[in-house]
Protein 1
Amino acid sequence: MNDKTLISVSDLKKYYNGGSIKALDGISEEIRKGEVVVVIGPSGSGKSTFLRCLNLLEVPTGGHILFNGADITDEKTDINLHRRKMGMVFQHFNLFPHMTILRNMTAAPIKILKRRREEADAQAMALLKRVGLEDRANAYPSQLSGGQKQRIAIVRALCMSPEVMLFDEPTSALDPEMVGEVLEVMKQLANEGMTMIVVTHEMGFAREVGSRVIFMDEGRVVEENTPSAVFDRPQSGRLKSFLAKVL
Amino acid sequence: MEFWPELQKDFYQSFVEGGRWLLYIKGLGTTLLVTLLALILGIALGIIIAVIRAAHDQQALRKVNPVLKILNALCKVYTTVIRGTPMMVQLLIMYFVIFSNTRNQIGVAVLAFGINSGAYASEIIRGGIMSVDPGQMEAGRSLGFGYAGTMRLIIIPQAIKMILPALGNELITLLKETSIVTVIGLRDLTKAAMLIQGKTYQAFMPLIAIALIYLALVMILSWLLGSLERRLRASER
């Protein structure tokens, strides 16, 4: 593990029903700063579970996760401190429906980082401008389209100035014509050097933006390589048949 | 034939003579005071119990917190006992057994009704908490909020909105149920009517009068709750 390593995962396991279902069966990965890691695989392959284990939304059955050198799987670690530094974007947006867009974005900076309200508002407005939604600051989530909601969810996470962004199928719940606007924001973010781990079915995004692609199946990493190697020269039979179905 | 003068005499005796209308006003004040304080106590207790029980049910299987387990068991006993015994019996026990040394009837009544109401409110609130999308908790936690912070800022405000009709129902029940504080001698609205009935030997006027007052109170409450609900909903559209 060198100083460029941000997250180091070793032998990560997640079992259900006392081991009869192995959602993750021994994953070891190193995520370096500035990398855009795209995780692909058939449904049920464990890719979402893997992502959700990284900020302990799922509690792993075994293995270790080091984030900035701290073992977050250790029960003595205060996970809340580390989650601030790991932004997460969900498939179903999970915006807070009882708050305006601006409050959605500033609640955590104000309450957790103890920022002044004006300061948090200014930061949020700047981020909203970047995704072209500054005129919706005082709207409620229900007034927004799916694509808009997801762009807000991304900038809400960015308000905490995270070191890594986790994306859990961010475009899967969107109407097809809204997928592009969300991917565009993610692409921008990648270009600015944000470390990203993206679980997605968008193979075009994986190929264009990813610095590394991980193919998972049955709770294991079957193959990983640069996007061009994975898509143009797949090695394993399972990856070949998966790509044949999705491309 | 003698109907109208008779009625006038009844009315005079029941409301005017000796300033009896003041008794109704004072009684109404006591009823409202007991209801309001019991409501506050009941909702506070209800939220605490609901959060304990929801936290117990939702905790990760990895580490079952023993303190939480004991608290959860206590909460279960509390709701079982309170929901399983009549309100009037609870009130009598509270006044004549537990606090037999005090004559602070209002305090005892608030405590008894608050504790009773808390048991019902906790189940309503727990239902509300459980009905909030789990993704909301995940989103809150992923931003760095702790369990308690996420509950307070994100889950409970949404839960309250959803359970407002049921909580309103509980409030209306509470208001009407306070009429049994007469058994510990507290002079609420119902007791006022009974006292006047005892003096004038006229049952009709005082009882119909307080029935109408209760009815009016409930109608006002329903209207207030309805407009509160509409306002909360409006903020989301």
Protein 2
Amino acid sequence: MSAPLLEVENLEVEYPGKGFRAKPFRALKGVSLDILPGETVGLVGESGSGKTTLGRAVLGLAPVTGGSIRYAGREIGQLHRRERRELSSEIQVVFQDPYSSLNPALTIEQILIEPLTVRGVSTAAAKQRVATLLEQVGLPVDARSRLPREFSGGQRQRVAIARALALDPKLIVCDEPVSALDLSTQARVLDLFIEIQERTGVAYLFISHDLAVVRHVSHRVAVMYRGEIVESGDGDQVTARPEHPYTQKLFMAAPVPDPDQQEERRVARRRLMAIAAEG
Amino acid sequence: MTTAITPPNTIPTPTGRTSLLRRVIRRPLGTISLAFLLVVAVIAVIGPLIAPYDPNLASLQLVLAPPSAEHPLGADSGGRDVLSRLLAATQISIAAALVALVTALLIGVIAGLIAGYYRGWFDNVASWFTALVMALPGIVVLLAARAVVGPSVWAAMLIFGILLAPAYFRLVYAAVSAVRSELYVDAARVSGLSDLRIISRHILSVVRAPIIIQSAIVAGIAIAIQSGLEFLGLGDMSVPTWGSMLNDGFINIYKAPLLMMWPSLAIALTSIALTLLANVMRDALERTVQVRRRRRRAVATATGSIAAVTTSIGTVTGGIGIGIDAEAEPTIRHADDERAAARAGETILDVRDLRIGYGQDDGGTLEVVHGVSLDIRRGEVHGLIGESGSGKTQTAFAVLGLLPRGGRITGGSIDYEGVRLDTLGEREYTAIRGRRIGYIPQEPMSNLDPSFTIGSQLVEPLRVGLGLSKKDATEKTLALLERVGIPDPKRTFAAYPHEVSGGMAQRVLIAGAVSTDPDLIIADEPTTALDVTVQAEVLDLLRDLQAERQMALLLVTHNFGVVADLCDRVSVMQHGLIVEHGPVRAIFGRAEHPYTRSLLGAILDEGPARAPLGGAAIEKAEIQDADVAKADAVKGGAR
């Protein structure tokens, strides 16, 4: 196997506490994770588990206080802003909320051209690239002159994906990219993610609270709980036959969309909880 | 794949797009004040050129001369032509005000941008300095400055500009702090934009409008203060300004009262025009802000309600959904199976051909629910499922009599235990809503008032609604809190909403909904905002409570797992119509409508997990090596 694209080792992130001499809040307590080129690693956890913080640390948006993040062998955990900018063509992001992740005052073309012109691409070439990008994410070319508010949530998320793809990154951090979308839109956007990966060989760090979503897109899955990774392994193993009690609880809590199977799962979950309560 | 985008002409004209200037001109007050200021500006530029005499040319014959043909406004105590002085003074007074304005603008805006964007030590220093400057009495500082630097209009205005800078600093700082946390600013950083570019492109555009408004106010203040200083005789008497003319007129008020009028008019009208302009601009801006805020809030509190309206605008006028009619496509109805029949009591809620419309600006009505019929039986859980924009939340809100502003029932009937709800007045509704029909919202936190304790919010409806004494109501509330699984009811009773978690808040709201023993509870996406493990617990609670109290539950949701867990019967909504209806097992097992099938097909749980990156990875090994090489190149380049 080739060397990992991204290696996170014993990563710690602390946010300064609020108020005088307040204790800092430790969002990540020694997290280790690696992603191969072209691979999707799913990161599951509930709110407050630190999964988003891990994504933001990789993007250079969270304060790294310990451990290391290596991208293609190079330490990127504590880069200066200027050095960090160099990495923008390597690591990109798709955020959860398609409503606040696009500047409401700019047209789609302005949004997509921005990262290109900053890197010195000529305006004509950049416009050409925008047309290709829109086509790649399944939006009509005439979408470029519209404002974000004229699009539905799923379409905005496609714009966000196009922006992430603009610089041909090798890794995209996807922070709950489909959780604000309707069920059928969700499925289509997930398929788009997979299709893009198969075509371009981009790697994903795919963050979600939804086991089913992560199972659908991830080669490997890691489960986070209270700032630590409690279980990781192949997608099928973690999402269907979890070993850690927390993952089992998570797995059991998700209702199955079938009345009879769900009844069985409910019984099983209550039994599990009863055992946990006794133990 | 839905790549169809609603044509732009179907989108309501966005108010934010028309320029501020155009919106200001549309108001008469804006036009008048802007026109007046334009005249003042022109005079300020060409004033000395069109002045009939040298403003400083003194003539002994003309001392305090009354208006005449040669001197339309007369002459002052030095025998100088008043009209010429007024024209020349305009230039100096306006320029002096501009000095103060520009100084304040430069210092305040730049410091505000840096402090708000970077935070850190600069933020602390700048905020401390701002507080210090604001604490200084301005006029005293100006008097002291005059003693040191001498009687100069420009120096005084420069110092006054520094004193005014905090007004801009605070404004810009607040705006930048708010925008800074928007995800698009993070996205711009990840895109490799320099800080300067992010500030100029994404942040400055947000603070631009408030800065313009503030400038109009500050300019008015600067003119008034500057005139005040000159009036007190603290300025340079050799330079004609409005203030010094006022001073001269005041001294001679008994001999030539008219002298005071001209500078007074100039000062007053200019200041008033600036203030009015600021007000008009604020009105023009705040109206759009309000609209935006309301829309966002609606999305946050009841996803689907307002979103539903906007999506339907697109579909109805976009030519996709024209002529949607109940007759056009009858609801597919599955017969009851024995499980559903076993739960069935008599029908308590009967909705027939319900239509909901929203009044439009052009006087027409936009229909978003096109004839929905559903019945809920005593003690059953009825699922109403559909995607955002399907009208499911609208239907539920219509039953509660809580349609958003502009929405009303345009047809059909709602019958609840023999009472026609659709024609009920607001007063009678309060006797039913929250008492005989309970409501569990989607966002637990935004449905609790942050300024009251949880206990008082639960006790109040019991006392008012059921007429219980305070002691009884408190006892009942504590028992309910315990029943809904809150570990320490007494502590939660005394707590404020921000002190409990989202899951706990939802339990509190469930306790509130069942406290009056209603026969029907309407739950609008009750678990969507919760973590999956908390969701499971809340669903357990709802199931137990429902069985225990034999309540009917109308569950509005988009989550098929929740439906499978809880519901007896299900109605599937699309485009404001119920397309399929039946017992839960029939919907999951034998769905007939293409829309229901597509929804079921989109469920991810069924599919196999993605295989680990194995064989494919080896094939791509070459690409990967190339990637690493590229990354190495970047690494080298960065050094």
